[in-house]
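Good morning C.,

I know you're traveling, so I'll keep this short. The sequence:
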Amino acid sequence: MKNHNIKSAKSSWFKTLAGFSIVFLLATSISCKDKEKQENAQETDTADAMSVKEDNSTVDAYVTFVNDDKNKMALDHAYTNEALLKLTSAIDAMAGEVDFDIKADLDKARQSANKITEDPFETSHADEIRKAAEILSGSLQNIQVAKFPSLASDAEQVKSAAMAIDPKVLTLDQKEAVKSFFAKSSDLLDKMN
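The tokens, ready to paste straight into the viewer:
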């Protein structure tokens, strides 16, 4: 009788172990399939963000503005102010398209852009332009990282162009650096759009 109880206990133990093994394998299989579905969904979202052109009219307006005439920079900084404000609006529009919140940063950029038209003889305009450029290039880079991973090199070019604006040099003495920042930003936004 003891042999029968031992065999029965071994059989029961084996059945229990086999049952747990089956449950474990099923749970692992389901977990792997769920993880695979999530990864596929993320890849699809990224691919969709890259393949769908936003065709945002505010972005188009900035790109057109920058491409139309690059020789308008003057002492009153009206062109630079308008370019910065249009760029700020374009970045805001692109952020809205891809559901990315950067409102606080853009408000600071607008403030810097508006300061450069207050007094045409002020010598700190380059400093304000550089501040706005840094904020705007950072915002573009944040959007790029979140939604457009293949445009990292373009975003880095915008950041480099922003950093090339020397806050200690008069703006009109570094027109090419300022125009380069606008052009690089335009190129990146056009690719996102």
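Safe travels,
E.
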